[in-house]
Amino acid sequence: MGVRQGTHFSFLIPHFSLKKYKTMSKKKTNAKREAYAKKQEEQGKRVVEWIFGGLIVLAIIYLVWTFGMM
After folding, report:
1. How many CB atoms lie within 10 A of CB 29?
2. DSSP 8-state class, residue 22
3. Torsion of CA 54, 57, 61, 62, to 10 degrees
4. How far apart (Å, rounded) are the C-alpha atoms in residues 58 and 39?
5. Percentage of residues in the chain with pLDDT exceeding 70?
6. CA R_g for the chain
7. Residue 7 gets which letter from DSSP?
8. Count of CB atoms within 10 A of residue 61's CB?
9. pLDDT in tens, 30-64
10. How far apart are the C-alpha atoms of 70 and 52, rounded to whole Å?
């Protein structure tokens, strides 16, 4: 009687369903991914606001300089 490959210690490992753990893992991963996407979106909006604010400030400085040269 030979031992089949991969089964000689299978009696020591408790049998459980991996599907339950995969589902929990996917939910956890999706939650992390959504949280990261939300954080990235907020940071992106903040960067865009700073860029537009800087452009407005530069436009005002240019207007003052232009009318100051007259």
Report:
1. 10
2. H
3. 70
4. 29
5. 66
6. 31
7. -
8. 10
9. 889 999 999 999 999 999 999 999 999 999 999 99
10. 28
